[in-house]
Write a structure and sequence with these properties.
The chain is of the alpha/beta class. The protein has 14 helices and ten strands. The strands form two sheets. Strands 1-2-10-7-8-9 form a six-stranded mixed β-sheet, with helices on both faces. Strands 5-4-3-6 form a four-stranded parallel β-sheet. Helix 4 runs parallel beside helix 5. Bound molecules: ligand AN7.
């Protein structure tokens, strides 16, 4: 299966003549969710399941382009700060390209599967006694002083790759949806979606979607209009207090006639559970889009009836199994015991 560079090369601003560093990312499923849609009114609801990318998150779309560009510039090393998914993705694509990879993680704040992925792919994992935002500051400064390439979403090639999800959605639906809801952390992804939808509208005409960006209440810098020094949320992927692409994201939301809102952790966890009960296990941050739609509809701030809505589920639940396994029952290997247990 071709990766996103091969599929969309003519739409991407990338250096010419380099072989893509790819793991066949993209081409993720768009899944219809009629039962969840009924909570939102007469809505056509789809989930874009980015957890089915090679390292389990949407970051792979931006990493194939960022690492390909780094190789074309002759880089031998890359660095990123990460709440986890960027680290796992950078580590995998750097390994694929044979580059040294350094990842800076906020100590004790990264989900176990993401940490394990970064180690397993052979990255040099450095934990910083501080926040993600401080780790990003360090990575930025080091990349300015050395030839190590920064592959956070400040790197424009990251957005070039991530915008391809917008292309895929419009391709699947035959047009852009009315609304796109997605989580906001460092705010690169919402910026990339807006780039993608705008590029398509410029080239082919057609309507633009409205964007609903969703932060967690304890990390709601863009909603509150201030840097959050000690961001908190169960959704560790978006525990970010000073989004690097915050202004671009606010502009994207405004230009799209959408908005950026915040939802409390319990709403994120409810949405995560309800998605899981429809067969999709996403990590907490990835449920923020659905949580945001629900809270706007419930508060009467959004009427979605007759609308086509896409929720972006950005990462797989498997890498962030923070939900403790529920109670199980231990039995002897006897059929009678099993039948009694199941009331059969
Ligand atoms: C699952 O990995 O910032 O708003 O360092 O992992 O583009 O930052 C992750 C972010 C949403 C937010 N969903 O996207 C990182 C990191 C998941 C994520 C986001 C992240 P941006």
């Amino acid at each position: 299966m071709p990766g996103i560079i091969e599929r969309f090369r003519s739409y991407l601003d990338l250096p010419d003549g380099v072989d893509p560093v790819t793991l066949s990312e993209g081409s993720t499923p768009l899944i219809s969710m009629p039962r969840l849609a009924s909570d939102l009114g007469a809505v056509e609801l789809h989930i874009k399941f980015e957890g089915s990318n090679p390292t389990g998150s949407f970051k792979d779309r931006g990493m194939t382009t960022a690492i390909t560009a780094a190789v074309s510039r002759g880089a031998s090393a890359v660095i990123c700060a990460s709440t986890g998914n960027t680290a796992a993705s950078a580590a995998a694509y750097a390994a694929r390209a044979g580059l040294r990879c350094v990842v800076l993680l906020p100590h004790g704040k990264v989900a176990s599967g993401k940490l394990a992925a970064a180690y397993t792919h052979g990255a040099e994992v450095v934990e910083v006694e501080g926040s993600y935002d401080e780790a990003l500051g360090l990575a930025r400064r080091l990349s300015e002083r050395t030839s190590i390439n920064l592959v956070n979403s400040l790197n424009p090639y990251r957005l070039e790759g991530q915008k391809t999800a917008a292309f895929e959605i419009s391709e699947s639906l035959g047009a852009a949806p009315d609304w796109v809801a997605l989580p906001v952390g460092n705010a690169g992804n919402i910026s990339a979606y807006w780039m993608g939808f705008r590029q398509l509208a410029d080239l082919q005409g057609g309507d633009l979607p409205r964007l609903l960006g969703v932060q967690a209440s304890g990390s709601a810098s863009l909603v509150e209009g201030r840097v959050i020094d000690h961001p908190e949320t169960v959704a560790s992927a978006i525990r970010i207090g000073n989004p690097a692409r915050g202004e671009q994201a606010l502009r994207a939301a405004e230009e799209s006639s959408g908005r950026i809102i915040a939802v409390p952790d319990h709403a994120i966890l409810d949405a995560q559970r309800d998605l899981a009960h429809q067969g999709l296990w996403v990590e907490p941050a990835s449920a923020a889009g659905l949580a945001g739609l629900r809270s706007e509809v419930e508060a009467g701030r959004l009427d979605l009836s007759g609308q086509r809505v896409v929720c972006i589920c950005t990462g797989h639940g498997l890498k962030d199994p923070h939900v403790p396994a529920g109670p199980t029952t231990l039995i002897q290997p006897r059929l009678q015991d099993l039948e009694e247990l199941l009331n059969l």
